[in-house]
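Side project, low priority. Logging it here so it doesn't get lost.
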Amino acid sequence: MKRGRKVVAGILLTLFFSLYTADKLIAQDKNNERPPFKERLFWGGSFSLQLGTLTDIEIAPVVGVWLLPRLAIAGGPNYRFYKFLGEQTDIYGIQSYLQVVLLRDIDKLIPIGSHTSIVLQVDNELLSLESSFWKGSSYIPGESKRFLVNTPLIGGGLSQQIGRRASINFIVLWALSDSGYALYSNPEIRISFIF
């Protein structure tokens, strides 16, 4: 129970810091007019592929909106095909994240010719796992066939513009709780595209 309180406290502290930072950064953008809602919407996602003894294929599309010039929220479904030593399962669920742009253009700080942004990101994933696969010998027939695992993640990374509205994000995340099912490597490295 103490671990759960620490996780919740960590998430709340991170969200407070993110919103505080975003508020300060927005003050710098007051001269910018706010674009219409349609132009603030974005979509994208990520795809991962690992083949071998462990096969892990993930598709995670997202739809989001820029609430403020440097603050975005997004969410969407998540599906993974997971196979290990001849046994396989499907993992599905939902994910959401909050992203704060801490530094919009690193070239203004360090003139290296790259217009990359530094971002802070807080994720939350709620996944449905198959009981017979993940619980192994402790699974009791007749139990619910699936169970839910909620995992908050926090981290940051780089966002590189590749077009007027498109970017590629390199994010490093750490899981704030351990479900005991080895769903995440710490750190979790993700590459996603946004359009």
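Brief comment: The mean pLDDT is 86.
Revisit when time allows.
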